[in-house]
Amino acid sequence: MNVSIFLIGTELVRGIIQDKHTMFLTSKLTSMGYAVRRCVIIPDDGSVKEEIERAVPDSDVILLTGGLGPTSDDITREVVASLAGVPLEKNTQVWNRLYDKIGDRIYGANEVQTLFPKGFTVIDNPLGTAAGFSGFLKRDRAEADGGGVLIFCMPGPPREMQPMFINTVEPALADYIGRNNTGTDEYSVFLLAEARLEDLCRQVKLVNGLDGVSWGTRFQDCKISLYVNGENAGERRLFAEKLRAIAGKGLIADGCTEAVQILVNTLREKNYLVSTAESATSGLLAKLLTDIPGSSAWYWGGVNSYSADAKIKMLSVNEKEIKEHGMVTLECAKEMAEGVLRISGADLGVSITGIAGPSGEEEGKPLGTVCIGCASVKKNGEGASSDGADCEAVMVKMSHHTRESGRRRFAVIALILANFYLLGVPLIDIVSTWNYI
Amino acid sequence: MNVSIFLIGTELVRGIIQDKHTMFLTSKLTSMGYAVRRCVIIPDDGSVKEEIERAVPDSDVILLTGGLGPTSDDITREVVASLAGVPLEKNTQVWNRLYDKIGDRIYGANEVQTLFPKGFTVIDNPLGTAAGFSGFLKRDRAEADGGGVLIFCMPGPPREMQPMFINTVEPALADYIGRNNTGTDEYSVFLLAEARLEDLCRQVKLVNGLDGVSWGTRFQDCKISLYVNGENAGERRLFAEKLRAIAGKGLIADGCTEAVQILVNTLREKNYLVSTAESATSGLLAKLLTDIPGSSAWYWGGVNSYSADAKIKMLSVNEKEIKEHGMVTLECAKEMAEGVLRISGADLGVSITGIAGPSGEEEGKPLGTVCIGCASVKKNGEGASSDGADCEAVMVKMSHHTRESGRRRFAVIALILANFYLLGVPLIDIVSTWNYI
């Protein structure tokens, strides 16, 4: 089964953006048993029709991304209709869904996004305004009654294309090539680097002789989605179990979830409000906790105590302590968590103070060092402070990262640890198992 | 001048290695004034000849990487010789250099790497065993005496290809195209939806008869990059000027920048520290202000006063006022900005309180309504409060958005307005020009 891939986007051939589709698509196609004949990157200049026509004779499947936007250079839908020899027609369901999303703006340039080649199947795109579609291009009259080249058209942005591929196109392609008897389990992996996760997966497969298991990953902002494939559900589960054991506690969650969602679930169960005190991440933890609609049910508010002055004035962190030992200490993390708990009167206070870089390392505290504090009046453990609140803090040292990925991972560490704190698990028992972050 | 690029490598179309050539080559070609018609990634399966043949009629230049190795599937040199209608012949200089490098091993498979199409120019490769070469492919008999398609063949590994391109191919291509006579200006567009920007661009082109101007856009998290193309620099400038006039004040910035960078530049010029008080965006503004390294030079810290209780306890916002008029009011935005200014002692306080959705609309305040407040003791305008701080607040109503894009746009609005506030421009004079956000 031969596949031709067409990536349409002027930015791609002007050196403005990096192509993220080729490797993603070709690795998945290869693992399903397809042979990629060519991957062609072309501008939005109208040449797409001629380019696809050339590929029709020697392709069984064509994948196409981009050119589904609302602008005049987005001609994919017309070109595919023309190649299929059918007119474009309005899809009422898509029109209604788009109207719900963008309102009266639909009467402008976006309306073209509700048109699809007649007889084609529409593929929903919950993350954008461009739905995808699939159908057959006839190679000659002999194929008029069925068959031809199966074509899938998907939006260009990776954050829309990748979920569409995984949820709809990949299962359809597996079916088309006759590999429909394999199963896939999804996991959400936190804090591990993608290359490290790949190494661990290989190790688990090799050591446990799990030859029937394969995997794919998808990197996102705050997690990696891990898809474990294989015919035998028991083998897939064993693979995940072994992987979880060596990766570290709390780093691999079942299904498609986020670290913030896991904490929010616990907060909702207990009917708790959380407050935050952030230094290195300065607002990122608060933003994550309020990305989800309805967040006033679990988020009280908090402070971004970025400067030393902010820590002292807003959280009453001990000035002498900061001067003597710096701001990335267990003591500072504790005082921040206790401080915000005191101000807020919330049920849980969470603090983050760390060194995201690119500069600012201290002796014994390389870039990537972070201290997390958790405080609550609802617990009365050993660490209870004078005003009756329990408080715990731990230090974590992460390996290589950028300022951006470092800050994101600091926030994820805080989310994971805050959840364990609420569940009564000592934080040190968790972070001591994190050898690979 | 049209360019076709061919990247040969089975690993590239099996998802094993990431293509690093496309972006590198296309950005350099674009800046020289070449138009990339296509970039084709193909396996080492012998299909290269057919693929190149297709590109000869519509290309002025062909760049090819890979397939120059010593193994039997490395057929680039034979294919190019065949397309040029010349035999392969041994290059003695290359043979001698390679012998110096690998000794008697040259009598094995590597010997083929000393053969080149007759009449072609050899390009030295100090970093590997595969030298490159360049020459002309004739399109027809009329070109027999000169001209044709200029082709460059380079090795596949980026560490060998990139220096070869920079040292030899790029200067030759710059020479070949002569003077670059088309230009591109880049702008950064804030708050407008992509489809809306497209509509406005079309309108400006049509109304002003700017037929020589075209444009491209690239959507990013907090802005759209707009590229204005055309041979005439005056026409390009006029297009941008007219677009700026109808889009609204402060929404189109020169060059590649971000709203946060514009505010940070002003803060650094004045040597000011900013503090933030956020409700709807809860930490996003603080995060943006600290994404850039060195942010302790301009960011003091701030509060995420998400709940009413947080606004009252942390910022002393008037409880009665909230109960009577809600939290999305000019008064509340003012009190938040003044409150955080008072706590921090910073030079500027910025507040955001709005309705991001998906629910929570109030009468006269649809989803997308936001109030922004700015306060400073360094100004003494009419709005000066009892404790000597100047304070200004405005309300903005945005059209359709999601929770995520709404929160992002609220933060961008605050960044743009805070900058105008520091420049002494009344905020109402700015937002009254925003008809399209």
Describe the overall structure.
The structure is a homodimer of 437-residue chains. Helices cover 37% and strands 22% of the residues of chain A. Chain A has 437 residues and is an alpha/beta fold. Chain A folds into three domains: 2-176, Molybdenum Cofactor Biosythetic Enzyme, Chain A; 183-254, Alpha-Beta Plaits (2-Layer Sandwich), CATH 3.30.70; 259-431, Alpha-Beta Complex (Maf protein), CATH 3.90.950.20. In chain A, the strands form four sheets. Chain A has a six-stranded mixed β-sheet, sandwiched between helices. Chain A has a five-stranded mixed β-sheet with strand order 14-13-15-16-17, with helices on both faces. In chain A, helix 6 (194-207) crosses helix 7. Chain A starts with a strand and ends in a 6-residue tail after the last helix. The model of chain A has no long low-confidence stretch (mean pLDDT 91). Chains A and B meet through helix 1, strand 2, strand 13, helix 9 and strand 14 of A and helix 1, strand 2, helix 6, strand 10 and strand 13 of B. Strand 14 (299-304) of chain A pairs antiparallel with strand 14 (299-304) of chain B.
List keywords for this structure.
homodimer, 437 residues, alpha/beta, Molybdenum Cofactor Biosythetic Enzyme, Chain A, Alpha-Beta Plaits, Maf protein, 3 domains, six-stranded mixed β-sheet, five-stranded mixed β-sheet, 14 helices, 17 strands
